[in-house]
Hints:
2 domains; 5 helices; disordered C terminus; ATP-cone_dom; metal-binding
Amino acid sequence: MFCPYCRHDSSRVVDSRSLEDGSGIRRRRHCPQCSKRFTTVETTSLSVIKRSGAAEPFDRAKVINGVRKACQGRPVSTDDLAVLAQEVEESVRASGNAEVDANDVGLAILGPLKRLDVVAYMRFASVYRGFDNLDDFESALEQLRREELDATTESGTKVVQPRFGFR
């Protein structure tokens, strides 16, 4: 590793720690030539292959911006969106591939978004999955209701009030 101050081609690692979110390693280094210390951050690269075939680095901000419109007017905070973006990145990285299809990123968004806010999930899914008519919405709503009923049955508790205001 080159020293950013004197360009010496060797440095000594003084301290290594994982980043808070576990996405990489932070290293404190010491240059024997100029005696200055500097910090490096090591992460694995993750590229997203777009529909056009172009590759670009994975960007949590793009995930947040893509979901933000679906969450407009919903009780979803900026921190919630940051956590969602982290979950999506962890999910995509867990595939073990250095390159992932943009479609896979969209699919990775759906699960955490559904847990966060089902209305925002329906908004996002309607655009992402290209709902063309009311039947598409009704099918998605029925699937959500079945999942909710299954979860209620498994937990043994009775739902007093429906989550959706249009039953």
